[in-house]
Design a protein that fits this description.
The structure is a homodimer. By secondary structure, chain A is an alpha/beta fold. Helix content of chain A is 25%, strand content 29%. Chains A and B meet through helix 1, helix 2, helix 3 and helix 4 of A and helix 1, helix 2, helix 3 and helix 4 of B.
């Protein structure tokens, strides 16, 4: 089960009733935040969720509407009695950004580790989530993220019995451990069925539509994608600013066929994103114009 | 006429219905901001005021709840088409802070100048406002600010006529200029009455109660003062964290006798500041527990 909340839907700047775009992912007691613009800590508090379990923060790029909330977010995490280290992942140059952030928030009761993404694509395994950063196309270096949870095959007790595997090894084998017992070696493959369908979420902003997004989001359970402009005639502006229109986003949806798709990162000039959904649904129907605080619980098929 | 708005009343961190403490002062078309924590730009937008005329930002100290909103505030000022330079005034070390702020907000269409305050007290004349920073007592270097507008004496046409001052010099003399006309020198004192009562606002946070606050706020039109805690028994905590209780603030009011006094910078644990006003009013009656967006227009006596 993955709990997903879109804390805000704004682009460029926070507005009185629209926080900037940021995604919170909860899995198995751990939380992960993607992007942290000004006010993200308030948006999180409005949802009533805890700051303490946020182990990881992924940054798409270094524009202020995606990073300016970090100093306050860290301080509030500190006030929630967190002492375990936090890991920040982001583009090359993160070291310089973190120095700036720590100048504004110098005293924290936990360590802040960071990882600068290497190359066009890199995968991390954190808290049971497989996180893949992949390059997209903005006016500065920018990555989108695929967050996947894999699902092992079902444990087959009959097979375990047939192979005379001692009962005490069943649990560790089920967890994926390999066990050596004297001369015998037991592997998970001996008792687990085929890998079952996992869960996959892709978060893509700020970017032009590039093929990598649809490739990563293929059959995803949720694609969160920017749709900066909705009204007709904004294609040129979208190209110039290296953003995309809602209709361009819908085309990615059509290619990738995600089960759910949320548009976000609306231009401050876009007051009612809903009103352009007709043209969006004509391209791909499974899209909504997400609202601040939009939530979904993604479940494994047999959950 | 001075227009004053307290954009927020929170201390430590912004909350869903409480922005962090920040004061906006408008005088003669120019705006001045004191402190700029996370979300201050949203608070300003809620009030419907313009970002463009903010020429000056005063910082009391470098805790994040007073500075973390600067990158976003600057960017939004940039989006309001401002091209004139902005001046930031704050404690020594401001250069380092501004480097951090400019790392998060690197591209602005205006210059950002800054002045590190020298010594325990320093006065600046900006946009017709006399701004005095004076040292107070927090756990890092911190200044309070007195903002005064002086009021020249009334122009006395009869005296100007009696002294046979040519009519074309009346306006410049009224503005305070000295004029040399051949052998004769005309000075403002020749035509202006005694200096009239001006306007004075003092803003003091975060600090222990120190005599300088009451000295500067003596007979002020408005004293904005922190009152971090209200409930009984918080004196020790206030001393430890170098803050003050509402009752300690009221004692400053009693000493300084400001016409208006606003408490602010409430602890996040202080949900209803109003409920402690009984004990505050017993010490000094002219105090209110300010609310977010609290406003006042201060007028000259003869305005």
């Amino acid at each position: 089960m993955l709990d997903i909340t879109l804390l805000g839907t704004g682009g460029m700047m926070p507005l009185p009733r629209r926080w900037v775009t940021s995604l919170l992912v909860r899995y198995n007691g751990a939380s992960l935040l993607v992007d942290c613009g000004e006010g993200t800590q308030i948006a999180l508090r409005e949802k009533g969720w805890s700051f303490k379990p946020v182990n990881t923060i992924l940054l798409t790029h270094f524009h202020a509407d995606h990073i300016a909330g970090l100093p306050g977010f860290f301080l509030t995490m500190g006030n929630s009695d967190r002492t375990e280290p936090v890991t920040v992942i982001g583009p090359r140059g993160l070291s310089r950004i973190m120095t700036a952030v720590r100048t504004i928030a110098p005293e924290l009761p936990f360590e802040v580790n960071f990882i600068e993404i290497d190359g066009n694509e890199q995968t991390f395994l954190i808290d049971g989530m497989e996180i893949t950063a992949f390059r997209v196309q903005h006016n500065i270096v920018c990555y989108a993220y695929e967050i996947s949870v894999r699902r092992k095959g079902r444990f087959d007790a009959a097979r375990a019995k047939a192979q005379e595997i001692p009962l005490r090894f069943w649990n560790p084998l089920q967890r994926g451990e390999t066990i050596e017992d004297g001369a015998r070696i037991y592997t998970p493959e001996m008792v687990l069925g085929e890998e079952r369908k996992g869960l996959k979420v892709v978060y893509a902003t700020d970017t032009r539509p590039v093929p990598a997004i649809a490739e990563h989001a293929l059959n995803a359970d949720l694609l969160v994608c920017e749709g900066m402009y909705g009204e007709p005639g904004m294609d040129k502006k979208a190209r110039e600013h290296r953003h995309m229109t809602m209709q361009e986003a819908a085309q990615i949806g059509k290619d990738a066929q995600p089960v759910n798709m949320w548009l976000t990162h609306y231009s401050p000039s876009l007051v009612r994103p809903d009103q352009y959904m007709g043209s969006v649904h004509a391209i791909y129907p499974n899209v909504i114009a997400a609202k601040d605080g939009q939530e979904i619980t993604l479940k494994f098929e047999d959950e």
